[in-house]
Amino acid sequence: MNQSMLGLVQNETVKLLRRRRFLVVVLILAILIPIFTYAQYRSVVTAQERMGTTDWRPLLTQQIVDMQNRLASSRLPDEWRDFIKIRIQQQQYYLDHDINPMAPGGPTFARGFMDQAISMFLPMIIVVLAVDIVSAEFSEGTIKLLLTRPVRRWKVLTSKYITLLLFTSLTVLMTLILAYLLSGVVFGYSGWDLPILTGFEVSGGELVTSGAFMLPQWQFLLMQYGLGWFVCIVVGTVTFMVSVLIRSAAAGMGIMMAALISGTILTQMASSWESSKYLFVVNLQLTNYLNGTLPPIKGMTLPFSLAVLTIWAVAALIVAYTVFTRRDVTS
Amino acid sequence: MGETVLAVSRLQKTIGKKQIIHDITFDVFAGEVFGFLGPNGAGKTTTIRMLVGLAKADGGDIRIGGISLRENFPEAISQVGCIVENPELYKFLTGRENLEQFARMSGGITQERIEEIVRFVDLERAIDDKVKTYSLGMRQRLGIAQALLHRPKILILDEPTNGLDPAGIRELRQFIRRLAEEEGLAVFISSHLLSEIEMMCDRVAIINQGKVISVGLVQELMEQFADQVEWTIPHAHLPKALEVLRGHNAVTDLLTVGEESVRTRMDMERVAEVNQKLVQAGVPVVGIATKTVTLEDLFLTLTGGGGEK
């Protein structure tokens, strides 16, 4: 990166910080993570009270029995049946190998948090960060100052994108740090070396455990947050395009929220509409591939989802650059 | 007359299916204030947007300091300082932070230069306050500061007096004259107000419906129409009258209008003297009408009332 680009990125960083966008993001995380921590704590306590013990083995055994009972119900749809079977196999595996899947601790909470946050919560936070990074310049009229400098338009846009990438990465990092630090107050800070089972494969609706192996939790977290980072980059890139195309931040926000929410709904509707797997919003739940959860639509794999997300991001960038460098600025 | 700083030739622009700018050609020289005059909707702002690279021209050429804006945008635009419409700055930053933003984009601007320009626009006391606390006049001055920061050769201002009070307008006018006369800057000002152009500018281009109608010195354009005297003389005596008028040293220009009328440009104070000469030569003068034409009249004449073709 040459000197002038460094100056441009510095400019964008100043603007982003002074617009207090990153502060908002950190505040959202700092408020919601304690809430989730408390909810997690309550559910652990409730489970223990019900079991009348703090030993997790009977709890896990009970869960397996519960799921087997549900399987016995004839009204259960087939796809749920497959899913529950896989969960039972998995839980049984933990039990057999003496692994507490819910072992509390900061790292375990951070892992659970990313599982939950990757498809909705984190993307929404990234949307907050990215949605007006270009459009605010248009709505405030400052774009006229920005584009009448001796800097080519593509460089101006690149500096904004680099800044977005930096802050998206920082947000994912902050999520890990805050999730660990804040939940650790309740659950303690140990558990980095806890063995986590991964490497499940789903083949024809069956969980294939032959490739399963153990990973220390810190390695698993690294993979998980890496995938979370990738999802955030893709969502950030698509939002970036929306920010170029749509001048109103409120409209841009609405579009991205609608997209993310419909993604969640489509994921739950599962396999009935198979080609929806090419939508980026259906492919956000990347951590499920690590956990061995059945994908929402048959035929979806980690490489498939990564490819779909990459293609969407590249297409969004092409649109953003084409429009931004060619468009006449009017008031 | 200084070097040519801005050369615009055969500029064209079509938006949608409508051709907004048909054929605009003019030059702006160093050290002059150039007015760009036209009614609202004449294409002034569209032209300015093309001059500063916010919109792309469909045809024609814009050269700034001899460098084509289309071929080498960064180098051409680095010689331009501009305020298009209102001076919109980052309201959540201080005045100084705003200037630092633009300094980093232009390159080669020292902290001393920023201090210098802040003193120049007289904003020392408010420069570390957020721009959202500024009055319109202060924003205008900060806008000028950002436009002059990188020492441009030409300053382009789009309707700069919009929203200013009379004192502010007077201050701006003096400021602009100073820039042109003392700093040798070319200043390009668009306006739909004739009085403004008349008071501020050396030369003016008058545009209407995307075409340049006239380019010239403001004084010359004024003189062309100003101080006219219209003599009404019976048709039979017209040749004699013309002979007398031509021979008189007070009359500088002469035009026959219709069958019984002669229009002259002349020193108003000598009308009686000329009249006496006509009467002595046996020409019965039926009527004498004096008329001082303002730029307003000129403008209306040239644009055919401003509206229709």
TrEMBL record, chain A:
Query: For this UniProt entry, which segments traverse the membrane?
Result: 21-41, 117-140, 161-182, 222-246, 253-273, 304-324
The yes or no answer to whether the keyword tRNA processing is present is: no
Q: Which domain of life is it from?
A: Bacteria
Q: Name one GO cellular component term.
A: plasma membrane
Q: Which GO terms describe its molecular function?
A: ABC-type transporter activity
Q: Which UniProt keywords apply?
A: Membrane, Transmembrane, Transmembrane helix
Q: Name one Pfam family in it.
A: ABC2_membrane_2
Q: Which PANTHER family match?
A: BACITRACIN TRANSPORT PERMEASE PROTEIN BCRB (PTHR37305:SF2), INTEGRAL MEMBRANE PROTEIN-RELATED (PTHR37305)
What name goes with this protein?
A: ABC transporter permease
Q: Species name for this entry?
A: Brevibacillus gelatini
From TrEMBL, chain B:
UniProt xrefs under InterPro entries: AAA+_ATPase, ABC_transporter-like_ATP-bd, ABC_transporter-like_CS, P-loop_NTPase
Citing just one GO molecular function, the answer is: ATP hydrolysis activity
Say yes or no: keyword Transport present.
yes
> What are the record keywords, sorted?
ATP-binding, Nucleotide-binding, Transport
Keyword field contains Transport: yes
Question: Pfam families, from UniProt?
Answer: ABC_tran (PF00005)
Cite the ABC transporter domain residue spans from the record: 6-234
- Put simply, this protein is called ABC transporter ATP-binding protein
Organism listed in the record: Brevibacillus gelatini
The UniProt entry's sequence similarity note says: Belongs to the ABC transporter superfamily.
